[in-house]
Amino acid sequence: MALPVRVWTNARLATLDPRRSGLGIVEDAALVVRDGRIAYAGPAADLPSALLTSSDVVDCEGRWITPGLVDCHTHLVHAGNRANEFQMRLAGASYDEIARAGGGIVSSVGKVRAASEDDLVLESLPRLDALLAEGVTTIEIKSGYGLTIDDELKMLRAARRLASLRRVSITTTYLGAHATPADYRGRNRDFIRDVVIPGMKAAQAEGLVDAVDGFCEGIAFSPDEIRLVFDAARALGLPVKLHADQLSNLSGAALAASCGALSADHLEYTDEPGTNAMAKAGTVAVLLPGAFYFLRETRKPPVDLFRKHGVPVALATDNNPGTSPLTSLLLTMNMGATLFGLTVTECLAGVTREAARALGRIGETGTLEVGKSADFCLWDIGEPAELVYRIGFNPLHRRVWKGE
Ligand SMILES: [Zn+2]
């Protein structure tokens, strides 16, 4: 057990506190943790002296502290890999061609169905550990490779079990409408009626689901079909989010916004009406540069429109076996900068504050503000820009989750 009060002194904070500008930097700072929550984050000179005499004090030796990183879009629980499809794509096949040939998401489905819950947990742990080693303290994990009620629930149970094996907060998302399994090919509405919606209800009844997601795309589900799924989610009181406008513009972002979605994700083909709708609804744009890079896409998400309309932007790994076998949020930030033109501040906010917002967890984590969970990272860096600048280098000194 940690002491009830611990004071981290001689630190430099990037608080990401929206009441401060930019990264919310505080030099010569101290951070106080009481009962796993942030009790103070600010100038050391203003620290109440009573805290110093009665507390356990840690000298940070001038290190930078940021909020713990949040990976707000992953398919981390899966079985096997799709290195063979990677090889096919390198030989010239498109994502669409691979999907129509029965590859893509559907090829991961067989492996997940064959795996036990224990198998899924064991296979996913090394991927989770890679993220934790870079300072992740909150991660979202989706179902979506089971596509039967039992297999979707198995994936969600595996995701929940990971939280009992590692010191990390995990939110789970039900992605029943990820792909149509072979036995429902051409019958999306039947699949939604027979499997997606009953599976959602079963997951909700078992306490396995924090949000509901869908894949709105020509190779997946139409906007009208997604609306059926979202209507069911909202009837259960579950927040929604959407894989939208990744490979074409089906107005997925606007659909997500019209349903009050927490986030719309990918967004390479999103237009100005979609952006405007997201801004009005407070829907976060979750950009996934790993998938863009891995698929060698050329159409970039409209970052200038997000800035113009004030849409919050988050970044995530999209860790998945088919299109983004990426387990590094540090590299994701570098890709967000180099591929999408995001600034250092946008990248760092995108894996902390805005990622927490995209999960509906902004009141709990994502910034160094009083009252939030004491989730933070100490870094061996001279300035925050180094976290975005380096490629394949991990300067994490210490990861703290709930104060420990
Ligand atoms: Zn995804």
Termini separation: 8 Å
By DSSP (H or I, 4+ residues per run), the number of helices equals 16
Helix content: 25-40%
Globally, the shape reads: globular
Mean pLDDT: 95
**Ligands, deduplicated:** zinc ion
Largest sheet: 8 strands, parallel
Radius of gyration from the CA trace? 21 Å
Low-confidence stretches: none
Number of strands: 15
Strand line-up across the major sheet: 6-7-8-9-10-11-12-13
Category from helices, strands and their pairing: alpha/beta
What does this structure look like?
The chain has about 400 residues and is an alpha/beta fold. It has 16 helices and 15 strands. It has helices spanning about 50-55, 85-90, 95-100, 105-115, 115-130, 150-165, 190-205, 225-235, 250-260, 270-280, 290-295, 305-310, 330-340, 345-350, 355-360, 385-390; strands spanning about 5-15, 25-35, 35-45, 55-60, 65, 70, 135-140, 170-175, 210-215, 240-245, 265, 285, 315, 375-380, 395-400. It has an 8-stranded parallel sheet. Strands 1, 2, 3, 4, 5, 14 and 15 form a 7-stranded mixed sheet that branches. Helix 5 (about 115-130) packs across helix 6. The protein is globular, with a radius of gyration of 21 Å. The chain starts with a strand and ends with a strand. The model has no long low-confidence stretch (mean pLDDT about 95). Zinc ion (ZN) binds near residues 73, 243, 318 and 320.
